[in-house]
Amino acid sequence: MLVSAGQKSWRRIAAGSTLSGGDQLRTEKAAKATLTFPDGSRIELGPQSNFTLDEASDGNSMHLGLGSLRAFIKHVVGKRFDVHTPTAVCSVRGTDFIMIVNEQGHTAVQMFTGILAVADHRGNEALLRDGDRLRVTDKGLSSVEHQAAGGTQGPADKLKEVAKREVGLQMSKEQVQAAAAIESKNAIFQEGKAIIDVNGNRVRIEEYIVRPRPTDFKLVVLDSRADRFDYFYYHGVFNQTLPDDISLALRMLPGCIGAACPFFLTSYDTGRSNTIDNMLEVSAGGHMIDVNNDGVAADKVTAAFDPKTNTFVGLTVNNPGVNDPANNQPFFQTLFNTNQLTFNGVMHTSWAPAGGAGAACGSPGNICSMGGAEVAFTNVTTVQNPPACSPPDCTYTEPGLIHQVVFSANGTGTIWDKFDSYIISDTGKVATTADFAGVTSGASYKSTLLKWNFEQIVTASEFHGRKIDLAVEPKIFIESGLIP
User: Fold this and answer.
1) In angstroms, rounded to a whole number, what is the distance separating the alpha carbons of residues 45 and 51?
2) What's the mean pLDDT in 279-295?
3) Which of 412, 445, 476, 481 could form a disulfide with 247 if both were Cys (CB 3.0 to 4.6 A apart)?
4) 320-348 confidence digits (pLDDT tens)
5) 66-99 residues labelled b (16+ CB within 10 A) or e (exposed)
6) What is the 3-state secondary structure (H, E, C) of the chain?
7) What CATH fold (topology level) applies to the domain 2-162?
8) What confidence score (pLDDT) does residue 183 get?
9) CB 69 within 8 Å of CB 83
10) In 10 A of CB 386, how many CB atoms?
11) pLDDT one-digit tens code per residue, 95-145
């Protein structure tokens, strides 16, 4: 399948077609694709891969967002050939290698012949030669290993070995539970209870937060029912080592008033699964922007939570759309340069920098505003609102109840996703707006929320009638600072 640069609709591609810079390819479950370059080099894409040709000029730059490729590259003096993934950049110098990107964006590289320079996003680089292999995660490069001819363990096996040690996607119920048993031993916050969900089913909720690395935190939620198992994780990477009291940093995630937050996310990945289907969102390139003074009026924030006073406060924005800190009270939030949302590996939405005034955002290439022209969106699906559709297949809030539906689809309705969100009691009663009447501060909101739970049911075109059904209790969010 192909979506041309600047377009939104995917279409089938015929053999012999020519790609241009910005074109994206997607291979189906049992499909492969071969790209041949004028110098005789070629790229072979494996099944369920997402690939973008970034440039097509004197040099070639491409992006593998998910899946696998094998590259046969001829060395030409003065010509560049780069392969980017969510965590790595491989600069080819005439080589034969395999690259695999899993759903967390982690990259495994296995060299066969030639020389390959592999760099992470932290400025580290390794040079691979015949038989070398390594992994690249959002933490950086692993050490280089060498596999002699005839070795049996490839990069995909290495990724699977690592995945078994921590909760991630594409795992069975037993693998998730085993990994969770290991992870949760180091939990800094942990909660659990049994409730009745919105459909009347008993669900056992287990939740924990760990610090897998000094700069990281990871939230995991496990839902066990008699006939199903659903789970969720959120893994965030901060700009610096987290304090012993991690809640001090987590309270800053919504943003900071007056000055940039000392702690902010540089990347995150979050996944949901029912052990058959999965939903994955990956973001990278996080940086702080004063959204009240970024030159885009639509970005203004006129009310925000102030952790110093533990309440919501109003912000003065007298001159929206203008960089005027004297009249627009600064409010800093994290913007991410890249984002991709996939369902069973099929991309539904994404964005990346499109060029423009990046230097004003701290470094060239950074996105200054999500409403600015420097953002290139690739949205296969768009939110469908009334009167274009009628409940339940649209975006609406059920009158009197705290039940919201958000439905998105492409123009033909062949690719779509739907989120049903509820606030429910331990007995499965859906909260009403009256239950939250009079809640005026952070303290009263938290005390009220502790009486309730959150449940979200996700369905998508790729799930073939199945769903991911996650119920969570808010106590761990409040204790950790995720709900400030």
Assistant:
1) 8
2) 89
3) 481
4) 888 889 999 999 999 998 888 999 888 89
5) bbbbbbbbeeeeebebbbbbbbbbbbbebbbbbb
6) CEECCCCCCCECCCCCCCCCCCCEEECCCCCCEEEECCCCCEEEECCCCEEEEEEECCCEEEEEEEEEEEEEECCCCCCCEEEECCCEEEEEEEEEEEEEECCCCCEEEEEEEEEEEEEECCCCEEEECCCEEEEEECCEECCCEECCCCCCCCHHHHHHHHHCCCCCCCCCHHHHHHHHHHHHHHCCEEEEEEEECCCCCEEEEEEEEECCCCCEEEEEEEEECCCCEEEEEEEEEECCCCCCCCHHHHCCCCCEECCCCCCCEEEEEEEEECCCCEEEEEEECCEEEEHHHCCCHHHCCCEEEECCCCEEEECCECCCCCCCCCCECCEEEEECCEEEEEECCEEEEEEEECCCCHHHHCCCCCCCCCCCCCEEEEECCEECCCCCCCCCCCCEECCCECEEEEEEECCCCCCEEEEEEEEECCCCCECEHHHHCCCCCHHHHHHHHCCCEEEEEEEEHHHCCCCEEEEECCHHHHHHCCCC
7) Jelly Rolls (2.60.120)
8) 84
9) yes
10) 10
11) 777 888 877 778 888 887 777 788 887 777 788 877 788 888 878 888 887
Contacts 24+ apart (CB under 8 A), 122-131: 128/97
pLDDT of res. 441: 60
Q: What are phi and psi of 430, to 5 degrees?
A: -80, 130
Domain regions of the chain by residue span: 2-162, 165-480
Vertex 330 angle, CA 326 and 332, to 5°: 160
For residue 62, the cross-strand partners are 53, 83
Reported pTM = 0.66
230 in Cβ contact with 206 (< 8 Å): no
Before 387, cis peptide (omega within 30)?
yes
pLDDT in tens, 148-181: 544 444 444 444 444 445 777 777 888 888 888 8
Residue type, 237: V
Tokens of 59: 């040099």
